[in-house]
Amino acid sequence: MLYAAIPLGAGVAGLLSGTFTRVRLQGRGVVLAVAAWGLAVAGFGLAGPLWLGAVFLALAGVADLVASSFRGAILQQATTDEMRGRMQGFFIVVVAGGPRLADLLHGTLGDLLGPRVAVTGGGLLVVVAIVLVVSRYPDFWRYQAPGRDDDGRSAGVDAAPRGDAAPRLAE
């Protein structure tokens, strides 16, 4: 049940992912989804019954898919053609390596402090980390997807040809 919960949540979010196209403030989408992931993991760490733990993991799966969708879109939209391959490679290293580092941290702290403290603390640490990142890089919070705002003006990426486009941040 626990192994299936995260993919189940991601699958449900995937069925609803068409609604993501309406979200213009994708930076906020990433930040809020990462915070939701951390809170869901912390909730899993605090959950008593197995079914409640599975619900929190399913919520983590939803949050992970949402964050992943917006991160991928931002990577493709805001990166120049010349840098896109390098950025994608770096992205893969982070996505593949980050969870393994977290596994090492959870395993070590779980052995020292117990699994409940390690998992709950890890989830809360994610929330603290995303708040620190946004406070250091507030432009990310304001990142807008390309398109038009309510007044018909260009929003997100300027109308320059692909590769020369630079993200325009919300004011």
How would you describe the overall organization of this protein?
The chain crosses the membrane at residues 6-23, 30-48, 117-134. It is a multi-pass membrane protein. Its main location: membrane. InterPro entries: MFS_dom, MFS_trans_sf. Residues 148-171 are annotated as: Disordered. The protein has one domain. A hairpin with a 5-residue loop joins β1 and β2. Helix content is 72%, strand content 2%. It contains 6 helices and 2 strands. Mean pLDDT is 86; it is low at 156-166. α1 (2-15) packs across α3, α2 (26-46) runs antiparallel to α3 and α4 runs antiparallel to α5. A two-stranded antiparallel sheet has the order 1-2. It has helices at 2-15, 26-46, 50-78, 81-113, 115-136, 138-141, and strands at residues 147-148, 154-155. It is mainly α and 171 residues long.
Segments where pLDDT lies below 50 for 5+ residues? 156-166
Number of beta strands: 2
Shape: globular
Strand coverage percent: under 5%
Helix/strand/pairing class, anyone? Answer: mainly alpha
Q: Tell me the major beta sheet.
A: 2 strands, antiparallel
Number of domains: 1
InterPro entries: MFS_dom, MFS_trans_sf
Organism: Angustibacter aerolatus
Protein name: Major facilitator superfamily (MFS) profile domain-containing protein
Membrane topology: Multi-pass membrane protein
